[in-house]
Amino acid sequence: MTGAAAAELAPADVDFTTIVRPGDTVVWTQGAGEPLELLERLLGQRHAIGRFRVFLAGSYAGAVRPEHADVLEIVGLGAVGANRTLCAAGAMQIVPGHFSDVPRLLREQLRPDVVLTQLAEDARGELSWGGVNGFVEAALPGARTVVAQLNDRIPWTRACERIERDRLDVVARVSRPLVEVPPPAPSDVDRAIAGRVAAYVDDGATLQLGIGAVPSAVAEAIRDRRDLGLHTGVVGDAAVDLVECGALTNARKPIDTGVSVAGALVGTRRLHDFAHRNPALMVEPITYTHDQAVLRRLTGLVAINGAVEVDLTGQVGAEVAGSRYVGTIGGQADFVRGALAAERGRSVIALSSRTKRGASKIVARLASGVVTTSRADADVIVTEHGAAELRGQPIPERVRRMIAIAHPDDREALEREAHEHVVGHR
């Protein structure tokens, strides 16, 4: 980056053949904050550029598709959102890693040459990360060129660190709302799970609560709580519900008192409007949202995460179903360990007892063999049939408690499999 005044261009005039070189690595704002006009232009010019590498964490627009692998080397963290299509097609090379490690990965291994970002700008010309902060900030210092999409239709949000205009080399102004991700409607099973999870959320607790049917159901189940706090990687529409009913105030948070903290907005226009110029919300980078030193200071932190399957000793698989990538390591282990390090913190892994096809998600051995969160970090596992508190329990007791929360029709078989496959059960 030169520090000179950024060149202002229309998106259609951005010539990536003069910005991206063959062999370069390109990264951009991820999730619902992707700079889509710039991406469409970049991808449309890929053949003229030649082969280069891109790094993906999560996408909800699906801008990068399997056919783009004819030129792109696609490296990513896993099957988040639309990236599941890339994984299914074998177009993504997956880098297993914790979300908290991404800034270091960018600095030491990937070393991006070109960074694309989407920013909001206010009437005074001050810049904001808008809907997604994440890891792009960590990629800026070493980049040769930074191209920013200034979007007048995304929320202007607060963060501890300001973005200086001299960090930008090229600016393109657009007018396009953030990608919307409506929350799925919870099922009866989701609500039964949420009712079990709610028992671990006391007044004054700080939540790590993501997006999806179970988090939405949990938000419904804790509307009667008071002075809840929020510190999370992604925030969805459910947080707006909790604020509007008076449950979420952040009044008892020992740090960031009175303020919700998230790394990214993943929801609908309702969430985006709520976030715009909201002094009670900060959209911060991974280096803050997922930092262990920060998380351990959040007294009463309750981390709520999901899983594909959990074995009888508490090993959690959240990435692979059979031989298919359906998820990612993401921030699960970061928040699990942060919650367990915090005073009165709890880590809850919530999942249904069975798949839609009727297979048990409580298993003697993880079918994929891929462990996302180790059994040493297991605390509470919840299904619609109960809650298994595993922390500090020996293996035989863990097995007993896990079988008790499996589907009733699967328990006898699990008993037999435990005797055959679980080392230390007897």
The coarse overall form would be globular
The H-level CATH homologous superfamily of the largest domain, spelled out, is: Acetyl-CoA hydrolase/transferase C-terminal domain
Q: Total strand count, please?
A: 22
CATH fold descriptor of the largest domain: Glutaconate Coenzyme A-transferase
Work out the helix count: 14
Main sheet properties: 9 strands, mixed
Q: Can you give the mean pLDDT?
A: 95
The CATH architecture designation of the largest domain is: 3-Layer(aba) Sandwich
Distance from N terminus to C terminus (CA atoms, Å) equals 62 Å
Unreliable stretches (pLDDT < 50, length at least 5) are none
Total count of domains: 2
Structural class: alpha/beta
Q: Helical proportion? A: 10-25%
Oligomer: single chain
Query: What Rg, in angstroms, do the CA atoms define?
Result: 22 Å
Describe the structure.
With 426 residues, the protein is of the alpha/beta class. It folds into 2 domains: 7-174, Glutaconate Coenzyme A-transferase (3-Layer(aba) Sandwich), CATH 3.40.1080.10; 188-421, 3-Layer(aba) Sandwich (Glutaconate Coenzyme A-transferase), CATH 3.40.1080.20. It has 14 helices and 22 strands. The protein has helices spanning 36-44, 46-49, 83-88, 102-110, 136-139, 188-198, 213-221, 237-244, 269-275, 286-289, 292-295, 332-341, 395-404, 411-421, and strands at residues 7-9, 25-28, 52-56, 72-76, 92-94, 114-121, 127-128, 145-151, 170-174, 206-209, 229-235, 260-265, 281-283, 301-306, 309-311, 316-317, 320-321, 324-325, 346-350, 362-363, 380-383, 386-389. The strands form 4 sheets. Strands 1, 2, 3, 4, 5, 6, 7, 8 and 9 form a 9-stranded mixed β-sheet that branches. Strands 13-12-11-10-14-19-21-22 form an 8-stranded mixed β-sheet, sandwiched between helices. It has a 3-stranded mixed β-sheet with strand order 16-15-20, with no helix packed on it. Helix 7 (213-221) runs parallel beside helix 8 (237-244). The model has no long low-confidence stretch (mean pLDDT 95).
